[in-house]
Structures are given as structure tokens and as C-alpha cells.
Amino acid sequence: MLxxxxxxxxxxxxxxxxxxxxxxxxxxxxxxxxxxxxxxxxTVPDGAExxxxxxxxxxxxxxxxxGTDREHILRINAFVTGREHMAGxxxxxxxxxxxxxxxxxxxxxxxxxxxxxxFVVEIxxxxxLPA
Length: 131
Description:
Layout: E1 2-5, E2 20-23, E3 26-31, E4 35-36, H1 48-65, E5 73-80, H2 86-96, E6 105-110, E7 121-130
Parallel strand pairs: 5-6
Antiparallel strand pairs: 1-2, 3-7, 4-7, 5-7
């Protein structure tokens, strides 16, 4: 069972995420490496929202391979190369989490860049493995 932690006696999160997540009766933890928006044909989509949508689709595949899914996400760490990319990333994240029963913890950081200049978003997740 996953439980989003959003205490009523502190300021609420800025967006669609929880301050923390508690996991009980789980079978373990899975973490991913940071994922960049590289399609299987080697192309990189333009814009933060398109890049984040591709990354989240790729994360779905990694989660499946690990025996879990987005319903078991505990934490999202995301990185963008500028404030102008935050809205696009957040739109893709919110769409990816739209049907999830609990909200994961989330951190979004602005960084100076990635391995190639066309990448503007990188995302990594931590998920619980169902018992």
C-alpha cells in the first residue's frame, strides 16, 4: 500500500505531487537511471513537453521490465535546463500521473545542461515493487 503524505498543517505542494510517500507491505524498491528523450530511432523530440512525454513512455517500459508500474512510483527527480522548460515538463508529468491513485514525492531542478545540447529534460524515478 502506498500513501501520499500531504500534512494539513504545512503549506501544500506547489503542483501535482506529494511531500512524501509511505510504502508498506511492498516487495522491494526499483530505481531508474536518469532518462533522456532519445527515441528508439535515435531522434530527439523538440521541446520540453514532447521530451518529457517520451521519457515517461520509456519509464513505463523500464517499470514494466522491473515488475512494477506508475501506480507504484514513490519519487520523481526531474531536471530541466531552464525555467522556460518547467511548464512543458510539468504538463507531461501531470498527464502521466492523471490516473494514478496516489501522488509521488517529486523534485524538479534546473541544471546547466546534459550530454547533448538538444536535451532539455532528464527524469529518474523510484518505485516500489509489489509484494
